[in-house]
What we know:
The protein contains 5 helices and 5 strands. The protein is an alpha+beta fold and 151 residues long.
Amino acid sequence: EAALVELDGKVVGAANVGQAFTDSVYFWGRPSAVEYNGGGSGGSNKGTNNPEYLSEVAGRIESFMAAHPYLSRGDVPSELVTASGSGLDPDISVRGAEVQIRRVAASRGMSEDAVRKIVEASVERPWLGLFGTYKVNVLKLNVALDEAQGR
Length: 151
């Protein structure tokens, strides 16, 4: 299933493939070891004790903290600084979205409460309440924000 997502009648992406969001007005997804190339998914193949891998993660943590100075290092969800096995994960946890609300709201000139309500409406629940996890599709969330602001 392609799960194409539209905004103003134009396809802006596929909900089942992660993509790079770097602008402060958008929620960010998981990093990608394959630069979000759907034709060649995969992880970095670097072990968790590989010095190059550790350096990459440390750099991602510093970048994330610079954009979210209100967080402490321990508040940064690991999913936002480590790439998924496929490099194309389209979803983040509810916590991964919650820690970004303040930045996104300030960047958009919206109240945190208004952004929080859009996040809450975007939470996908486990199938039948049992199978899977609570998650937020980053593309769908960002499209909902743009629609709310008439962008």
